[in-house]
Amino acid sequence: MFVCFSPKKKREMSCFILSAEKVMNVLLFIAILFGIFGSNAQLLPDDEVQTLRTIFAKLQHRPVNIERTSCSDRNSNFTSGEGNRTIICDCTVNSTCHVTRIFLKSLSLPGIFPPEFGNLTRLLEIDLSRNYLNGTIPMTLSRTPLEILSVTGNRLSGPIPPQLGDVTTLTNLNLESNLLSGPIPSSLGSLTSLKSLLLSANNFTGQLPQPLINLKNLTNFRIDGNSLSGKIPEFIGNWTQLDRLDLQGTSMSGPIPASISNLRNLTELRITDLNGPAFDFPDLRNLINIKRLVLRNCFIRGRIPDYIGSMTELKTLDLSSNLLTGPIPDTFRDLDYNFMFLSNNSLSGQLPQFIIDSKDSVDLSYNNFTQAPSLSCSMPDINLVSSYRSETANSVQWCLRRDLPCPTEAKHSSLFINCGGEAVEVGKDTYEEDLNNKGASIFMPVSDRWGYSSSGTWIGDDGVPYLATDERFNLLNESVPQYYKRARLAPQSLKYYGLCLRSESYKLQLHFAEIMFSNDQTYSSIGRRVFDIYVQGNLLVKDFNIAERAGGVGKPFTLQIDRVQVNGSTLEVHLLWSGKGTNVLPQRGVYGPLISAITITPNYKVDDGKPLSNGAVAGIVVAACAVFAFLVLLILRLTGYLGRKEEDDNEELRGLDLQTGSFTLKQIKRATNNFDPENKIGEGGFGPVYKGVLGDGTTIAVKQLSSKSKQGNREFVTEIGMISALQHPNLVKLYGCCIEGKELLLVYEYLENNSLARALFGSEKQRLHLDWATRNKICIGIAKGLAYLHEESRLKIVHRDIKATNVLLDQSLNAKISDFGLAKLDEEENTHISTRIAGTIGYMAPEYAMRGYLTDKADVYSFGVVCLEIVSGKSNTNYRPKEEFVYLLDWAYVLQEQGNLLELVDMDLGTNFSKKEAKRMLNIALLCTNPSPTLRPPMSSVVSMLEGKIKVEPPLVKREADPTGAAAMRFRAFELLSQDSESQASTFERDREQKSSTSMDGPWVDSSFSAPGKDGNVKQEEEEERSSSSSRKLLDELTEVKVE
């Protein structure tokens, strides 16, 4: 039944289809109104009633009661929740109503597009978008005065009827995401009132007809994903009102016409995947309002024009996969962009620092940059994989080199990846997890076996995730491998790399299943995902469609390549979207490459299992004897009987594959004035630290290895090998090293503002008065640095001694984590028991302090303590609010339970802080310091929480009643340990002060407490064990904390 509304002074009446259960109430209401107002109801003509009945029947809409009184003006509005069912009538002519607008959207109607629409001679708008209609567009529409026609997301086929050009009243024609074909009729050039013409994701062919030049009122023209021919016509420059122009994946040829510069109102220009030949960069200097400029894979050559940097409204710039050369223009520093994609070109020169420092998404992979700064393989928002030319190979990380050489040993012979999913067992093989939900511009070396690279931004919806799960449609049954349940997708480019593979032949299997469309007769089933597949840089499949290959959605399909040759050590699989297929079904943003799993197995025998021959056995015996003799000589040399140990240490250091520069001893002596005591700024765990100034004016900090300890030299070797591979904005940067004679030196960046501890707790003269924004920035910076160490770096690093003195501040008060001398590689294991406890009482996690149980969650705990200190401006170990509380953390638990957590905020801030951010930061601190390591979040989640991307819900840790005094004993134990720690630290300080008078204007002070293990003095260990036995017993009790 129709329900209509015709307010006074309105030309049209709105009518809605009422559900059956409402009919009786509405009829009663009508009867009452009829009794009040009389019988002046306005009626639909009989022919329109019959036409509507026929239309609904051919659309295969459920039965609807349509009568002449359906457009009565005495009823209320009703909107159905199942979709958008609305009919609008005009009842202003001679007490007669006429249907003017019909909306039947998102109903998955399975019928045809009824030609009877042409019988509604007053019809102004038809919206049948997102249904399941088939058949053709009726030519009878030419009899209507239509202004808007929208049939997006159906299965309509055949050509656009030329008669549609007779509907000169049309202002919006939306035919995208159907199966329409044939040439675009020239008659559309008669639609001079047209403002929006959307033809994307169909099968149109031929050229854009010349009569379209007349469409001077167009503001929106999209024709993506069709198989057109010819060049982009010059007449597009006549559409001077154009706001958006989409020509992605059209198969047209360049060049981009100069007339494009006439389109001064353009805010979005997308042209991709043009055919050759190459052409110079088009003149776009007049596009002053442009916000999204995408010219991808267009054969554009030459330099990027400087004027691009003057496009002040630009938010997305994509010039990837062209023939661009030269440097990135310096004018780009003025751009306020969100996304910049310049990959797959031949850009050269030095990578600008403003790009490296950018917080936005940038993809510069596969270029020819030189003069490389110290960069990491895994940076949060910048993709630099294979971005440097071969001549700079020795000075950059392995991942920045063109051929992605194996940084260790090419030893792997197989690889199994569950793309977008958790680790799963399939037969005897374990498919590794792939759960990182990032992809706008990222290279992620997940392990030494593989990594992935993802690039692009979604059209119409930036919030689309990069992981897909078969939850909405439940397409897959339990009999298929579990890796088909999840998938990774990307809006543009997705690459997987098998790393450190042997130079052999492999069988490659790519597993696919379309899990984002449904398999029923609804509009959710008619999307088309189309992309290209490259293997080892060669096009394997053009216009690959998962559902077509598999015989439907929700069905698995494996693309198998029997022989893939790996000549270096890397196998590359590249999935690339080239503008084809739909991008609005089931909703906007569903398109681009998608893959479920990857299997790589060898075509050679890794181990045939046959017994060794007699000759082989004899050879092994001879080799073993030779190795034994070599080891005896080596031991003699190391113990000083043969050669000098200093030379061996030097060779050991020189053998490291350092990702840094090198310095001569002469340079270092000149920089530090020959290690002048006046330049000594601290005493680190390996020896003194000096401030220096290089010849180019760069201020450095030089860490000099102490010659007193042979153990120290071995630790130094470990430290330099590890630190050289770690580069991140929130880690202290290692500039290089110096190895000459007895001198073993590390050269770091010098940080002007010393440590966070001095900034917060130093004397009045030393202390920095940090405002709230700076504290928030410092906290996020520490979190990002730890997230990099734990999750993003190729090496998995647990710092072990995170505290305020090991966080340094640069000139802009950015936080940088220092002192990796206590860090230990996690060696791909989840946990291990440390034989040497290294850390500082008051910052160490309970499980690590008491049992040596070490995971990255120990760093999370320490971070939580530092976070509390940043907010409160108080030291965790030195601040005693009341006698019964040992630590600041203890007091924080009490205030949280009382609901007075904000009392912890530093009083020096007054009211100049964000209460919301302060409460968030304090709650995060308590979440990180949870007594149970399993309940502490990973640092990547901490970063998201600090940035407000994830809601913070910390557990409530309660201190129970203590009638027996047990709790007091537990806290007393902590107090004793704390005092013991402080006593040792004080002794260390006195010893250091007696040896030299040290300036404190630099950041290099080691204040960590290390409990010796097997390599320490045995007698000292026994004494400490006896003295700490009672305290350790109490510490075990301290973990008995109630967590809700």
TrEMBL record:
One of its GO terms (cellular component) is membrane. It catalyses: L-seryl-[protein] + ATP = O-phospho-L-seryl-[protein] + ADP + H(+); L-threonyl-[protein] + ATP = O-phospho-L-threonyl-[protein] + ADP + H(+). The keyword Signal applies. GO terms for molecular function: ATP binding; protein serine/threonine kinase activity. Coiled coil: none annotated. It holds the Pfam family PK_Tyr_Ser-Thr. It comes from the Eukaryota. Residues 1033-1044 have a biased composition (Basic and acidic residues). This is non-specific serine/threonine protein kinase. It comes from Brassica campestris (Field mustard). The lineage of its organism: Eukaryota, Viridiplantae, Streptophyta, Embryophyta, Tracheophyta.
